[in-house]
TrEMBL record:
Protein location: Membrane
Keyword NAD: no
Positions with biased composition (Basic and acidic residues): 546-562
InterPro entries: Memb_transporter_dom (IPR049453)
Name recorded for this polypeptide: FUSC family protein
Membrane topology: Multi-pass membrane protein
Spans through the membrane: 16-34, 40-57, 78-103, 402-420, 427-444, 476-494, 500-519
Major site of localization recorded for this protein: membrane
GO cellular component: membrane
Organism of origin: Streptomyces parvulus
Highest rank taxon of the organism: Bacteria
Source taxonomy: Bacteria, Bacillati, Actinomycetota, Actinomycetes, Kitasatosporales
Length: 714
């Protein structure tokens, strides 16, 4: 058994445990003792457990109550389906396969569904086991109604937890900080190291891996896509402001000062919009200021001479800040119900703005229909495990066979190592729990009053300690809960604990076999594959963007607003989404070895995001400028060097990929017009940043540990 959780850990979730225990008792006791309906009592007991413990619903009390209300019809349908398919073992197993596959895969489209999937699966599991008794369906649905109603009222009335800020509010707080930083840059033109660290830290806190499950805007609809894009743009904005604060000041650059003021105003205004307020200025405010900044930069009088190179780079960095601010402002409008054509902005960046919701779901499902998607892998692994468990339990005629499936559902992990760790702990916990419960049954005999008095306290302890104590405590305490409950429904002996132990061990074995056979490494192997695919897919985007600066890239035909991306952007965006999903799962998995000497996956994702951002914003809207042959040659060479480095980096060499593009020479800068010169510096800043991200992602220049050196020598 693992260590006993501390009192702080155990009772941190006591409010939820009390709500679930009381909701289960409100339905269970009247059904068992007043109505004498054991079927009603069973479903009234397990419904709060399904949606209160097995599916820990996120959000406020009202959000959780809404989730229960929306899940109840689906739960009723699954109970009816399971009742009908319980006629044969094969029918129930095939139904289990399809239900688990549909629910697990469908959870990728909406976080609301993801939070209730385990509870919905349990509803089907309970109903699909013998005896085949379709005449009891009304009683089963009545139990569901009693349990769901009691849990819903408990969520609204009992022990409301402190409210957590939504993701939109977190983005709004980050934008307030960005507005303050922009104001500081207006006054001092630089930020100190502590302020820059705060900007970067706040940006990292917006990552989905730092948000509670169910509170992440990962849905396929327009609102979630826009909110996710707003968060990504806000992270990028904070990093860019920190970088801008470290550049040499330019006190006489009034155009930059004006644009920086517009950025501060836009950030503050967007924060208010995300909190539900009204916009003080239109969304086009910063777009127009950015356009004026570009015009002023391009029309700088030749008589003033060439501006300093440091000033050109500072202006280019400021332009990236403005692009991020425009992106987050537009995405915030879309996330809060705005319905506009986003004129003047890259169509590919906001491709979802005018796409119907049904097609957005289709795009999400189609994008994950590949063995390289961790969403697909998890859905297949879970569905096969549950279907096999149902087949084995039915074929062997195991008593209380639904415990086999419940074990698979609660103990299966995304890696074989994680599953084995959970199985070992659960087996020990179940054994201890079975011994204690067996002793209780032998000692109490048929005294149902003893079991009735112990049920609620046992549920409170189990639902408080189990979630934080790990599989061992969860399975051991849950064994006591089901023993005290079943002893009140029908006469039991100590052999109930024997059946419980056999069922848990059987389910654990099935889960372990599926974990070994179906993608046993989890997201670790997929992380390497998806990042390699992302780096290869990004190479054509870099080349096409460089070609667009020189005017060589042909514009795609058709309405870009009606499809996700155009040209080479589509594969790159798809690979980035696959890699991001793999990284999100990778962060949750226990690694058998250290990754300190491996690639920096987060830097690889940042590289992919930066590639797409540059592809959206760098190509000049008014057409490519006239460039000298030397300038064209530099653009083509630099673009191809970065693209070639990305292809080399896709192999993830142990020594990394370190390189630098040739700087834009003073002769080339002097031989071009102000507008073309500024565009070339924009491209140089972007390519330099990509080179740095590639070096970080592949670990170039990082000293190898002794273990890594020994591996290379062997």
């Amino acid at each position: 058994m693992p260590r006993l959780p501390s009192l702080t850990e155990s009772f941190g979730g006591s409010g939820r445990a009390l709500r679930v225990a009381l909701a289960a008792a409100v339905g269970f006791y009247p059904a068992a003792y007043l109505m004498d309906r054991p079927v009603v009592a069973l479903y009234a007991l397990f419904t709060p457990i399904a949606f209160g413990v097995l599916s820990p619903l996120p959000g406020s009390s009202r959000d959780r109550a809404g989730s229960i209300l929306r899940a109840a019809p689906a739960a009723a349908a699954l109970i009816a389906l399971g009742t009908a398919l319980a006629v044969t073992t094969w029918a129930a197993a095939v139904g289990m396969l399809l239900v688990a596959l549909a629910l697990t895969f469908g959870a990728a489209c909406t976080p609301r569904l993801a939070s209730v999937v385990p509870g919905l699966q349990l509803c089907y599991i309970l109903a699909c086991f013998p005896p085949y008794a379709p005449e009891t369906l009304p009683e089963r649905l009545l139990g569901l109604l009693l349990g769901a109603t009691a849990l819903l009222l408990g969520e609204l009335l009992l022990f409301p937890p402190p409210r957590r800020p939504s993701y939109a509010e977190r983005v709004a707080d980050a934008l307030d900080l960005a507005a303050q930083a922009a104001g500081l840059l207006l006054r001092a033109e630089s930020v100190d190291g502590a302020a820059a660290d705060r900007l970067r830290t706040t940006g990292r806190e917006l990552r989905f891996s730092r948000q509670p499950h169910g509170c992440r805007p990962t849905g396929a609809g327009r609102t979630d896509r826009a909110l996710a894009q707003a968060g990504s743009a806000a992270r990028r904005l904070l990093d860019q402001l920190a970088a801008l604060g470290g550049l040499p000041p330019a006190p006489a650059d009034t155009a930059s000062q004006t644009l920086l003021h517009g950025i501060a105003v836009t950030c503050s205004d967007t924060a208010g919009v995300l909190r539900g307020g009204r916009s003080v200025r239109g969304a086009e405010f910063l777009e127009e200021m950015t356009a004026r900044f570009l015009d002023e930069r391009a029309e700088e009088p030749e008589s003033r001479g060439d501006p300093p190179y440091a000033l050109l780079r500072r202006r280019s960095t400021l332009l990236t800040v403005a692009a991020s601010a425009v992106t987050v402002r537009t995405a915030a409008d879309l996330a809060t119900g705005g319905d506009r054509e986003v004129p003047g902005l890259p169509h590919e960046q906001f491709w979802y703005a005018r796409v119907p919701a049904v097609r957005l779901w289709f795009v999400r499902v189609r994008g994950n229909l590949t063995p390289r998607s961790v969403v697909f892998q998890n859905a297949v692994r879970t569905a096969l495990g549950l279907a096999l468990a149902r087949l084995v339990a039915g074929s062997l005629d195991l008593s209380h066979g639904f415990w086999v499936l419940l074990s698979v559902l609660t103990l299966a992990r995304t890696t074989a190592v994680g599953t084995w760790s959970a199985v070992r702990s659960a087996a020990a916990g179940t054994l201890v729990g079975a011994v204690v419960a067996g002793a209780l049954i032998i000692g109490a005999g048929d005294a149902t009053g003893v079991y009735a008095g112990l049920l609620v306290p046992m549920m409170v302890i189990a639902f408080s300690v189990g979630p934080v104590g790990g599989p061992g405590w969860a399975q051991g305490l849950f064994t006591l809960v089901v023993s005290t409950a079943f002893a009140q429904i029908a006469p039991v002996t100590w052999r109930l604990e024997e059946a419980r132990l056999v069922d848990v061990l059987t389910g654990s074995g099935i889960g372990l076999v599926c974990g070994l056979l179906a993608w046993p490494a989890g997201a670790r192997t997929e992380m390497r594959r998806s990042v390699a695919a992302l780096l290869r897919a990004s190479a054509p985007v870099v080349r096409d963007t460089a070609d667009a600066v020189t005017g060589r890239r042909a514009e795609p035909h058709g309405d870009a607003a009606e499809r996700p991306t155009a040209g080479s952007l589509g594969p790159a965006l798809h690979r980035l989404r696959i890699a991001e999903a793999a990284y999100a799962q990778f962060r949750t998995e226990v690694s058998p070895r250290s990754d300190e000497d491996g690639p920096d996956w987060l830097a690889a994702l940042n590289y992919g995001s930066r590639v797409l951002t540059g592809a959206y914003w760098l190509p000049p809207a008014q057409g490519a400028p006239d460039l000298s042959p030397d300038a064209r040659r530099w653009v083509e060479t630099a673009g191809r060097e970065v693209a070639a480095a990305a292809v080399r980096a896709a192999d993830l060499p142990s020594h990394g990929v370190a390189f630098g593009i040739a700087p834009l020479s003073p002769a080339v800068r002097s031989a071009t017009s102000p507008g073309a010169r500024s565009l070339l510096v924009d491209l140089e800043v972007w390519l330099d940043a990509l080179a740095g991200e590639l070096a970080t992602a592949t670990g170039a220049g990082r000293p190898a540990s002794a273990e890594a050196t020994n591996r290379q020598e062997r």
